[in-house]
TrEMBL record:
Keyword Oxidoreductase attributed: yes
GO molecular function terms noted in the UniProt entry: oxidoreductase activity, acting on the aldehyde or oxo group of donors, NAD or NADP as acceptor
Name of protein: Aldehyde dehydrogenase
Keywords from the UniProt entry: Oxidoreductase
All residue ranges annotated as the Aldehyde dehydrogenase domain in the record: 14-475
Pfam family, one: Aldedh
PANTHER family linked: ALDEHYDE DEHYDROGENASE-RELATED
Length: 481
């Protein structure tokens, strides 16, 4: 379907919004990817109504139809991963291999949940009353509002849409303002997958309008959100007030501990990959390197050398290791955090400055800050850019305490060859995901994803654990009479 304005998809129809918004390439701001519809509140409400109308038939319909639709979507994403990966990189700014990889991951997620459709069973237990049996089944919730961020414009929508549909729910999907291109492409694939009209709806528009309508509307049974802590907390209050189910994935301030006994190459790779790839724009990115005395100087020297060799450039250029920051506002925030850190006493050991490239974009040299302490803002607040700091510690015990000294708890990593310390860390890290000798960012698609403390709220996403959020439990008692 070729479009001059990419429209919203509501009740099986492609509809113009109240307004349109240009989608601009962060690697080259002269490149406009397209004009995308912006819904108003009335259109968001009509999508919710369409989803409600479709729910009774869809939730009662056969599981074969659900399996087939998800499998078809997964197959098409996989077949078109290079083309859609290029769109993703052009729109969001991660490099082309990263973009293609993300689309491939989205494909696998749809295929995983196509399988889950067939595997979702219940339990049968004996009753304490003779002659009675008890069975426990999972049932769909209703209409799920999905509010997504810009940093994984294919994978995050996929890991919300696929389980929502797999377990028999209808969907109103609101992508982030900065990445309507991937959202529209995904919606277009879903529109041809054989779903009845209204089961899946795409509503592009502003968070304060469309997101707010989803949060407030009594017809939306549950809301799954990924984004900032401030918006997440706001959504929590709005959904709690009307007793809607809610799941939030928010920020991180993820530590990577490097102990004296670590393999230096592994530690440096984990640090550079985890903190700076995808321009540091991952909620699982490492942003605090906690390094023991004996390896500290060698680690800093080696990370600096590695950063020196990386190429920051247009996301679609062959050989680019790191693409641009997503937009001007995020770049200004990253630069400001580097300044704040230096003003608070940190040493800027590498990079941090804005860069010019052949094309006008939001380029920034990865930043490494040393001599930082736990109280500094750079070690407490999420930056969400290619900026990481180093804290020097005496030993493992101090490192663990520092790693846990944060309001967040998404991912936590350690590089060590000590089985004792690795085992202790896996047990005591206050995080939803723990990595040993691996980057904090980079997770499998078939196992649970999520965190603790201020990072997350509600049941985990992904893998078969996703059913906790996307279904409700019914306990049925039967007597033969
Ligand atoms: P970021 O600062 O990374 O853009 P946000 O939390 O603002 O993170 O955005 C994440 C998602 O939440 C986006 O889809 C955005 O449009 C949406 N959003 C923003 N404000 C609201 C709101 N008041 N209600 C619901 N959704 C919102």
């Amino acid at each position: 379907m070729s479009e001059s304005v990419f429209r919203n998809y509501i009740g099986g129809k492609w509809l113009a919004g109240e307004d349109t918004q240009a989608n601009v390439n962060p690697s080259d701001t002269r490149d406009v990817i397209g004009e995308y519809a912006q819904a108003g509140q009335a259109q968001a409400e009509s999508a919710i109504a369409a989803a409600r109308a479709a729910f009774p038939a869809w939730s009662a319909g056969g599981i074969q139809a659900r399996h087939d639709a998800l499998d078809r979507i997964g197959n098409e994403l996989h077949a078109r991963r290079e083309e859609l990966g290029a769109l993703l990189s052009r729109e969001e700014g991660k490099t082309l291999p990263e973009g293609i990889g993300e689309v491939g991951r989205a494909a696998m997620i749809f295929k995983f949940f196509a399988g889950e459709v067939l595997r979702t069973g219940g339990e049968v237990l004996p009753s304490v009353r003779p002659g009675v049996s008890v069975d426990i089944v999972r049932q769909p919730l209703g209409v799920i509002g999905l509010i997504a961020p810009w940093n994984f414009p294919m994978a995050i929508p996929a890991w919300k849409i696929a389980p929502a549909l797999a377990y028999g729910n209808c969907v109103v999907f609101k992508p982030a303002e900065l990445v309507p291109g991937c959202a529209w492409a995904l919606a277009e694939i879903i529109s041809r997958a054989g779903l009845p009209a209204g089961v899946f709806n795409l509503v592009m528009g502003r968070g304060s309008v469309v997101g707010e309508a989803i949060a407030q509307h009594p017809g939306v049974t549950a809301v799954s959100f990924t984004g900032s802590v401030a918006t997440g907390r706001h959504l929590l209050a709005a959904t709690a007030a009307r007793q809607a189910k809610v799941q939030l994935e928010m920020g991180g301030k993820n530590p990577l501990i490097v102990l004296d006994d670590a393999d230096l190459d592994i530690a440096v790779n984990c640090a550079v990959q985890g903190a700076y790839f995808s321009t540091g724009q991952r909620c699982t990115a490492s942003s605090r390197f906690i390094v023991t005395d004996g390896i500290h100087d060698r680690f800093v020297t080696a990370v600096r050398a590695k950063l020196q060799g990386l190429r920051v450039d247009h996301a679609l250029k062959a050989g680019a290791d790191i693409g641009p920051v997503v937009d001007a506002k995020q770049l200004a925030q990253n630069l400001e955090y580097v300044d704040i850190a230096v003003r608070e006493g940190a040493t800027l050991a590498f990079g941090g400055q804005a860069l010019e490239r052949e094309t006008p974009g939001f380029y920034q040299m990865p930043a490494l800050l040393t001599d930082t302490t736990p109280g500094m803002r750079i070690n407490r607040e999420e930056v969400f850019g290619p900026v990481a700091s180093v804290m020097r510690v005496r030993d493992y015990d101090e490192a663990l305490a520092m790693a846990n000294d944060t309001e967040f708890g998404l991912a936590s990593g350690i590089c060590t060859t000590s089985l004792k310390h690795a085992t202790h860390f896996r047990q005591h890290a206050e995080a939803g995901m723990v990595m040993v000798n691996l980057p904090t960012a980079g997770v499998d698609y078939h196992v649970p994803f999520g965190g603790r403390k201020a990072s997350s709220y509600g049941p985990r996403e992904q893998g078969s654990y996703a059913r906790e959020f996307y279904t409700t439990v019914k306990t049925a008692y039967t007597s033969a009479g």
